[in-house]
Amino acid sequence: MKHPVDVHVGKRIRHRRWMVGMTQQQLAEKVGIKFQQIQKYETGMNRVSASRLWDIAEALSVPVAFFFEGMDMPVEAQSVAHQEDASVPADILADKEALELVRSYYAIPENQRRRLFELARVLSDVA
Predict the structure, then answer these.
(1) pLDDT < 50 positions in the chain
(2) 69, 70, 75, 79 alpha-carbon torsion, rounded to 10°
(3) Alpha-carbon dihedral of residues 114, 118, 123, 127, nearest 10 degrees?
(4) How far from each other are the two terminal CA atoms of the chain, in whole angstroms?
(5) Among candidate residues 91, 80, 100, the one with its CA nearest the CA of residue 19
(6) Are 60 and 16 a contacting pair, CB within 8 Å?
(7) Residues of 85-104 as b/e, b for ≥16 C-beta within 10 angstroms?
(8) pLDDT tens digits, 4-24
(9) pLDDT attached to residue 34
(10) Which residue, among 9, 14, 41, 20, has the nearest Cα to 105 in the 3D structure?
(11) How many Å apart are CA 127 and CA 125, to the nearest integer?
């Protein structure tokens, strides 16, 4: 039986892999495993060990904590997280438009990307 945490981590692996435009085969090669294992991780069929998750995070250029973002938290932690930023959905990567926006953003050359980021901050009135 699939554990909800394994399913969530697998979805986050798949979303990040998709965001950076990497295939399962490419990720598997970077991590040193077969692509079928990536498939099993992404569906939650197999649990990802801590050391393997570390390798995957490195290959996808994210911190390990990225894979746990959006998980259901204890009630106390939820209220604190909700107060910190109520304007962003908990699972923003489930939104295909948001994913496409992020991929497009990172395709922009870095100097232009910084300028676009500053423009977005000004337009949204975020300090």
Answers:
(1) 77-82, 84
(2) 90
(3) 140
(4) 45
(5) 100
(6) yes
(7) eeeeeeeebeeeebbeebee
(8) 999 999 999 999 999 898 999
(9) 96
(10) 20
(11) 6
Place of tokens 């435009």: 21
Angle between helices 4-19 and 96-107 (to 10 degrees): 40
Sorted by where each begins, the domain ranges of the chain are 4-93, 95-127
CATH topology of domain 4-93: 434 Repressor (Amino-terminal Domain) (1.10.260)
User: Which pLDDT score, from 0 to 100, does residue 78 have?
Assistant: 46
Nearest CA to 102 among 9, 25, 8, 21? 21
Q: Identify the residue whose tokens are 């304007």.
A: 87
What pLDDT is attached to residue 9?
95
Tens digit of pLDDT for each residue in 102-118?
A: 888 888 988 898 888 88
DSSP-derived letter for residue 44 is T
Confidence at residue 87, expressed as pLDDT on a 0 to 100 scale: 58
Is the distance from CB of 108 to CB of 120 less than 8 angstroms? no
